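Work Package 3 (structural annotation) set out to generate three-dimensional models for the target panel prioritized at the project kickoff. During this period the team completed the workflow that converts sequence records into discrete structure tokens, so that structures can be stored uniformly alongside our sequence database. As a representative example, we reproduce one entry of 467 residues exactly as it appears in the project archive.
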Amino acid sequence: MFFFNDEYLENIALIDRNGSFLSYSDLTLKIKEFSGAFDRRHLVFIVGENDVSNIVCYLSCLESDMVPLLLSPKIKIDQLKNLIEVFKPRYIFQKLEDFYENYSLALRDQSYSLLVNKNNLKVQLNSKLALLLTTSGSTGSPKLVRLTKKNLISNARSIANYLKISPVDRAITSLPFNYSYGLSVINSHLLSGSSIVLSNASMMEGEFWKKINEHSVTGLSGVPYNYEMILKLGFNRLKIPSITSMTQAGGKLDYEKIKTIYDGLKSKKINFYSMYGQTEATARISCLMPNDIIRKRGSIGKAIPGGRLWVENKNGKIIDQSNTIGELIYSGDNVSMGYANSLDDLKLGDTNKGTLRTGDLAQFDSEGYFYIKGSINRFIKVFGNRISLDFVEEIISNMGFECAATGEENMLLIFLEDHPSLSKDSLRTNISNSIGINQKAIEITTISILPRLSNGKIDYKDLRLGE
């Protein structure tokens, strides 16, 4: 099998939502059986949750040399139809009852249906293409990340080695299956012969924590939004004796929250790993070890094994001087082949050549630890002043408010979740003083809750549409 071998056949691979165990041997049989539904090499859309059927379909695609695109079950039907029109998949695996034009039922698996395109279109796929994922924030748009089997294996192996994941470990699916970080957790544990508890429950639901204790889960992963929820619940209320490690990636948490999380987990003898990554590099790129969380405040750590990080100036020259800001560049076997915006792009070769320009601004210290300082694309001009939207969000977050910053010509637009202690005038004054622009150029809007994508990140597009 692609992610595991005979060494682990008797180990428990998956624990479904009903508490039933599936060994690696059982999983192997399911994969072989499901693979029989595919013919030749084609594109497959998988629209599903964290469940056995979905994982079996995904692994069957990899085993059968098919190319799956993983999509959220929450995707809007018009977005899904647009993707079908653009990429013309041979197969669609979904729970939805919708049957699309030219598609018919090939088989049923539990509550899922495998649909097949009756026209059997011939689509040219690059020989190394193995998986397609949506970029962060692009669900429903044609922009996809093109990944190879080498990308998947190298990242899974690197993470497994770095976090010392072993066959006795057990993860829980706390993140969406179609999100690169959530998929990375699944891949790294399958590679290690570990167990995975399948759940689609939120961290705010008692069912989620019940499953952790019921199945003695050892590892938990989350994005900043997940940890915000844990902070609201309170660490003292969490009774999770089996947990030995927790990882965070998918965005930046302000230092005070990280320190609170670190202290709370340390008191429970749980190791906390702060990580950084991008879908374009098969999820995870760097890690800050538990003993560096306080010592290296705000750092993303160092590159994972097999990878390398550096910074370049705007002319593409490598910056050797510490504490000097430039674009963060990463190289490693987990760097994707590039993007696909159309059907023709699926036949393209490796345009990245193992190197990823992250689009993030960063610097490193004298010990080689990296620090993100913003995003190249997250800047606006306000009356000649170049403003970092990430920095604005950091200022407001440090004041204790949930926010999102966007902008247009000569206007900074800030959206905040309503809070009893919020004073727009006071906040506007603080921001004006911090970034040096006139208060008249700052517009503050309060909303009940910030719109978020399935991976927990703020949905800036939906935020602006909802104005």
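The two ends are 49 Å apart (CA to CA).
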